Every structure is written in C-alpha cells, then in structure tokens.
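A reminder before we start the practical. When you read a complex entry, don't treat the lines as separate problems. The point of joint prediction is that each chain is placed relative to the others, so the output describes one connected object in space. Small molecules and nucleic acid strands, if listed, are placed in the same frame. In the example below there are two entries. Take a minute to note the order of the lines before looking further.
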Amino acid sequence: METRELIKSGEILISHPPHIWKGFSTAKIMYIVLAILLLPAGAAVYFFGLHALWVMLSSTATAILVEFIIRKLRKKRFVMDGSAAITGLLLALTLPPRIPIWMVIVGSVFSIAIVKEAFGGLGYNIFNPALAGRAFLAICFPVRMTEWYLPGNFAVDAMTSATPLSESYMYEGTKAAVYKDLFFGNIAGSIGETSAMIIIIGGLILISLRLIDWRIPVIYIGTVAAGALIFGQDAVFQIFAGGLMLGAFFMATDYVTSPVTPLGRSIFAFGAGVITLLIRNYSAMPEGVCFAILIMNAFTPLIDKYIKPKPFGYLRKRAKLKIKDQVKV
Amino acid sequence: MTVIRKKGFTNGIRLDENKKSAYSPIQIFKIPSRVIIPLQQHIGAECEPLVKKGDFVLEGQLIGDSSEAISARIHSSINGVVSGILKIVNPSTSTIINAVEIRAHENPETHLHNRTNKTEEIREKASPAPPKATDNIPSAADAAIDDTITFADDILKASDDIHYDRGDTLSFNTGITKTTDDITSYTDDILAAVDKIPVIRLLEIIKNSGIVGLGGAAFPTHIKLSPPAKNKIDTLIINGCECEPYITSDHRLMLEYGHEVICGIYIISRILKTGNVFIAIEDNKEDAIINLENIIYSLGLEKSFKIVSLQSKYPMGAEKVLIYNILRRKVPAGSLPFDVGVVVNNVGTSRAVYDAVIKGKPLIERVITVTGDIESPVNLMVRIGTLLGDIIESIHAPKDKSLKLIFGGPMTGFSINNMDFPVTKAINCILVKHVSKQAENNCIRCSRCVSVCPMNLMPLMYASFVKNNKYDACREYYIESCIECGSCAYVCPASIPLLGYIKTGKSVLARNN
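Here is the predicted structure of the whole assembly.
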C-alpha cells in the first residue's frame, strides 16, 4: 500500500477546494502586458533615438532592483512577477525625451519605494506608481519635465518645441497633416505617448485578450471627446494629443488602482475624463491625464464600497423585514 | 420535440472536462468486509444509533433514526455485526458525529436464520392469514400475495428495518412478480402500479428509505418533496448536469439505468402533482440525452417530460443557476426553490426513489466515480460506508508525492488524508490528483473573481475581510449568498484560496449568531 505509506509520511495534501487551478497567474498577466508595452517602447526608440532606450532601461532596472531591496528589507517574499518592470517601463514612457538619467532613477525609486512598497507592495498601493512617479518628477523638476523635442531630431542643440496641447503650440500645415502626425506619432511629446496608433494597437490586443476592461478606455476617451465638443474644441485633436491614449489604455486600467465592478469602472473612467477636461481647460497645466487618473485612484476604495453589484436574487424587501423584526423584539 | 436547447448564462466558466470515465460502465464494487456508516450523512439532525456493539445487523436494516423534523434515516449497508460506535468528523460541518462500524459476519447462516424468523414475525402481524413460506427465501412468499400494496403498507408500519430483501422485491409495492432486474420490457406496468400507490405512502417509503439528495448537498428528499402549503409547485427539474469535471456517475446512470431514472422521476412528479418536468443535461452528454429521450417516447411521457440541453459551463448544476437558466426565475437570496414554485432533484436521487418504492430498497449504495491521475478511471456501485482505503486498494494509485485524495469533484470536494474515511450518501466521486502547492500571492484586484461569480458577489472582499477578522463586513457584501462553487478561486491569478476564506467567514458568522 504505497498510498497508505504516503499518508503516514504526511505527503497527502489537505487543502480547501477547488483542487484545480486555471494557472493563469499574476506573473503571466504581467509578462503579457510587458510584451505589449514593447510596442510603444519600440516606437519611442524609433522616434526619439537611443536616449529613449536608456531612459526606459534605467527606469525598468531601477524599479526591479528597488523592489527587490525593499522586499528583502521588509523580510517579505520577493516574487519576480514583472509588476515592477511594468511600473518602470510605464514611468519611462511618460517622460520627456531628453530627461537626464539620474532624474529617471529618482522617479523610478519614488514610484516603487514610496508609492508601491510603502503602502504594502503589489495590490495594496492606492495610486498608480508610474503616474505618481511622473507627478513627483513634474513637481520636483518642472522645467526639465516640460522640455519637448520634435521626433527624429537627435542633435544635441535641437530646438525645443511646445507640447501640442499648450496654447503656444502653432499648427503647421493643414489640419489633416496635423492629425496624421498625431496619429502616427511624429510630434513633440513624452517618449511613449506620441504615437496614438501604436498605443491603440496595444490596447486592442489587451482588450481582445480580456486583460483589461474595455469600459475604462472607451468611456474615458469618449468623455474627453464629448467634453471637447461641448467646450467647442477639436475633439480629434484632444483625444490624440498628450498622454490620453497611454493613460486610458495602460494607466487607468491598472487593476490595483481601479474599481473591480463594471459599473464602478465606468464611473471611474467617466470621472477621469471629466477631471482631464477640467485640468486641460481651467488649470495652468497643459496636460491633465496624469493627475486626473491619480485623483480617481483616490476615489477607487470609495467606489468599491458603494458600487456593489446586487447579488443574484437580491430582494429590496430586506429593509422592511428588518423593521418587522425590530417590532417583534 | 422533447429536447429544448438553451444557451445564455454569461457568467460561469469553462473547465477542462476530463470526464475520463465516461465510457466505463458502472461496476458493482465488492461488498466490503468492514464499513463505517456515519449517522449524519445529510443536512439536518444527526441520527441516534439504534444498534449497539455486538448486535447483528442485516443489509438494509435501520440502524439510525432521529425524531427531529429534518433528518434522514440511516440503514446498514451490509450483513454483519456491529463492532463499535465510533466518533468521526463530518467534513461538511466540521463537527464530531457518531458512526456505526460494522464488520461483515463470517457465518452468514446465523443471520439468515435470524432474518427469516424476524420476517415471519412481521408477516404474522401484517396479515391475518399469512401465506406460509415454502422455503427460507421470504420474497418468494411476498410474490404470492395478491394485495401486495396493502401488504407492503403493513410491513412498513410493522417494521422498517427488514422490509428490504436484495435482488427480487420488485413485487413489493407494485404487485409485479417479474424477478429480472432488466425492467425495460415492463416499465409501463411499473408506472401503472405507481399510479395506484397513494402519495402519502410514497412519501413515507422515501422517508423510511433514508433518501437524500445524491447530487452532493444531501438534503432529505422527503422534505424536499413535501413543500409548504403556501408554495404551489408547478415545475420539477431533474438535475443531470454534472457540471463538475471528472465526475461521470450521473452520466452513466442516465445511460445504464435510464428506465429506473425515468420511473423515479415519474414517482417524484406524482408526489408533487406536477406535469411539468424538465430533465436538465449539459450538451457534453449527448448520448444520455438521446437515451432518455427514447425512453420518454417509448413510455408516452413526452407531453410532460422535457429534456433541456444546457451549455457545458460551470456551475450549471448549481440549483439556483439551473432554475434561472431553464425558467428564468430567480430564487431570492436566502430562500429555497419552493418560493419560485420549483423542486430540483438529482438523477441519482430519482433512481434511489425508484429503488425504494419499487424494490423496497433503502439507500444503502450509490454510484461513485473513481478517477483522476490513475490508470483506469471507473464508475463503481459501492455500499454506503465503504472505506476509502478499500477503494484506493482496488485502483492503481500513483506513488508520487504531493498527492491529493478528494471526496467529491475537483471544484467543491474536500481533500482527505484518512484511509478509514467512508463513502457517504453525499459523495459522488473519489478523485486522486497530483497537485503542486501554490503559493498565495497578493490580490491584484483584477476582478476576475467578480466577473465569474454566478451570484454576482465580490469574492476578493471576503479574503481581505477574513484576513483582518472583519467578519461583519463580509455580510455587507452578501457573503451568505455564496453557493461555494469555487469559480473565484479557480480563476484567481494570485492563487488565493478564496473559497477557503469564504467558508471560514461563513462559519464564524454562523457561530457568532
């Protein structure tokens, strides 16, 4: 009786059901997202040259290293699940093309050490680490964080250019030409945000693999477009310019910092759209995606508390029943 | 058109079916030399033992009964002698309960003699002019009696313990004297005979036979079949979904015991006085659908018996999900299917009802699937109380480490490491599986558990609340609506044992109240 012996030796496992597992682990999800993020990363190198590659590599490597060190300091298990790499890469994609590497490292350390690990690590952070890191850099180094360059111009003394969303930006050529540049990415901006096409392709892959909920990008972008029409602006320009595409597909859809229910996510995306519009139209900043998503991140616990799906067979009579019971007592 | 095909049901998950034993006919497992029969195998009160150490017991003899309203009788599954009343753990409630341990007796002559005497005593009581048995086989005498139904009544009233005689008691309640087990040729006669038995009598037989739901929940069937007067029952659903992977016991029953199953359903529908019967089968069991459809046509029952072919999705066989998918009626949270005018029974239960009413045989055996990572997965007809060790010995269990022995299916069954654990009425499968230990990672709030939950709950919340001992908060998220299907934990990327946390939360809340 081999099995009897196994029992005696304690090799028979005891656990809660279910005893089968789909096997689609956190690490698998993260690595698929990371692979899809290589699309905008490749575009960044194509448009902004090798420096963009160094920005992304330093940010990603720093993120993984910092997470490893902090997990060890906190005496917690370090899981190589790719989440730190995603944070590092996403942070890099939101940075301007000529940012010094040391600033990138500062931002990456802040993202992982303060925003992610200080709150308890993966799954416990309130704010999207990459966006919070970017916000931190934008506040600390406002000048270097708003130096935009036109793509393809790798010369050291290249002229800076205004971001398309700022008031000083001038249309050059026809509207159609501007749309084309915005769509394909031949425009000044953060290294990973300029090509709407590449980001949409990546986002559609994520949606088709059911890795992200379609509601967040669709409602977020839809809200911004509708708002732009109300404000009398160019809706196409508003959705393709700036960080909206990257934010809507890759930042707002972050599992940890967005609500878990379909309705909650819709509210979250709508809120982010409204705040983006408000910042773009009424604040001193030309771009609002980063702060809009961060503000909605703060609302996520509240949304999850109040937007609960009604369970199957839920009865509204519950309140009445309670009153009856009290009378009886 | 008796087969209705339904789609729908957006929640729910597709699982690898792994129905390895689907083509393995039901084999009769040997009568074990020792059985342990728990006195609580059902939802409801634990039975009191009616036997003591050293007593002789017969196959089918009543050994446990309870005066509580919700309970089910327990019968001995073998001939033998009681070797002790043991304490064992009931895995579904995690409480200590009594169990009767019976060892098969070496000298069957002794108790056969014993039994004949007892039977004759009862016969004298039952009938003013008892026909004298010409030999020691009492059933031959039974068959000779004209008014068998009245006779059965009296016998049942006189004693519930030995009204069962294995093999040839078809005559018992029906007056049919054929002794073959193959009932295909005279099912019509059985149905006609069933029509003559009063409903109250049918219910009594079911109660006396200790029948419980054999799908897994083990709710006493006689209670399920006597709904409160305020609820009008208009529909009977027979659950043949078998939505869990690996298990094939109901599938084989529908193929091999189709006539018995249909007769059982007929009896149940007669008790409920409903002509609206749906037999729910998942579309991965097309052969069972065809078999039952043919039987229904051959018996002319196609007006009231309809087969519903459902998508193979988990948890299709869960009562509330099933009712919703067939009738689009939602059973209110905290209510029973009675409240929407529906009774759901399992196909295995239907066959047990047939055995009880037609054969006079209490629930002492059932079909289980023995499967998993073993060489030859099989379906076995085993006696209740057969020990896990006996069954494991008969198969080639793998020698590897990290083995799991699971009673029940892979999604809801419980793992066990005690070879002396018995098969109970609620067990439909023994699964031997290799499982690698999965480390529990942090929840990344991906919401996969939310989107698969058939009850529209937020399972991730329960995990964090239970970890932080905030049990009352679980209730704000409707933890009591959970049907414990395990879908959430199955899809969880962080391999968090969500169902474990839910069960913990539920039991703590139940204890606090």
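Discuss with your neighbour: Residues 111-117, 122-169 of chain B have pLDDT under 50 and may be disordered. What might explain this?
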